[in-house]
Specification:
This protein has five helices and 15 strands. It is α+β, with helices and mostly antiparallel strands. The strands form three sheets. Strands 8, 9, 10, 11, 12, 13, 14 and 15 form an eight-stranded mixed β-sheet that branches. A five-stranded mixed β-barrel has the order 1-2-3-6-5. About 5% of the residues have low confidence.
């Protein structure tokens, strides 16, 4: 049965956990702004003409593949409607991390409504966005991952669709040039100079790998974390898949990889 945008919207809103998440500690003060238009599930336009991209999340927009095009457009419409229901034509607060603008000239901000609800957390908890931050968003990402895990377990919003599921490491070759959340067992760890490679298959020239560059390895060390999981460890990693001797995700910060077991 086809899921309509309205159905998906109700699934997310009615099944979302009770209670509002506040803005992460250390973010702020907030800048007041009036929302003139919600463009999509993570982008809005202010009354003064500025465009704002919501930091640390990625809402559905384009179909991940042609077979999923119809349902993907439905969930994209539902995500936009969910954000509009929260803040359209209302005054919000904008809080910025170190990076205030992206390469397209859009403001990058965390958004709170008049009641202090953190809008990113609302969208992720309702299944209308996945967590996708930058190194500047580390505090926010760490908190949002818990909301995403709960939404995924409850199959809210986009987590009801196969096109947005967590993929297996062996499936990544067909998913190059896309953002994905990947699960798999680390088969081998290889150090090349100051860089660390986590291999998820027997052939590093073809199978999925994760690169931990030297600056990210130092972030792990500063946080008292080990960037080298033992062979056999199941992990979940998120990011943009590129092709470099096989499908590859290059980490930008430690929170991109989660140890499952």
């Amino acid at each position: 049965m086809r899921l309509t945008a309205l159905t998906l919207l109700l699934v997310g809103v009615l099944c979302a956990p009770a209670g509002a998440a506040p803005l992460p500690a250390g973010l702020g003060p907030t800048e007041p702004a009036l929302v003139a238009e919600v463009i999509d599930g993570d982008t809005l336009r202010l009354a003064d003409g500025r465009t704002v991209r919501l930091a640390a999340i990625r809402a559905p927009k384009q179909p991940p593949d042609r077979r999923a095009a119809r349902l993907s457009h439905d969930i994209a419409d539902a995500a936009r409607a969910a954000l509009a229901a929260l803040i359209d034509r209302r005054t919000v607060g904008l809080a910025h991390e170190a990076v205030r603008e992206d390469r397209y000239g859009r403001l990058v901000a965390h958004v709170v409504d008049a009641d202090g609800r953190w809008i990113q957390a609302e969208l992720v908890a309702s299944g209308f966005a996945r967590v996708d931050g930058t190194v500047e968003d580390r505090r926010a990402v760490a908190l949002l991952l818990g909301h995403e895990s709960a939404a995924r377990a409850a199959r809210r919003g986009l987590w009801r669709l196969a096109a947005y599921r967590v993929v297996r490491a062996e499936e990544t070759a067909r998913l190059v040039d896309s953002f994905q959340i990947v699960e798999g067992a680390v088969r081998r760890v290889d150090r090349k100079g100051s860089r660390i490679w986590l291999d998820f298959g027997d052939d590093w020239r073809r199978d999925f790998s994760v690169l931990v560059p030297a600056p990210v390895a130092r972030m792990f060390a500063r946080d008292g974390l080990d960037p080298v999981p033992p062979a056999g460890t199941m992990v979940r990693v998120r990011g943009w898949i590129e092709w470099h001797n096989g499908p590859l995700i290059e980490l930008e910060f430690p929170e991109q990889i989660e140890v499952i077991r």
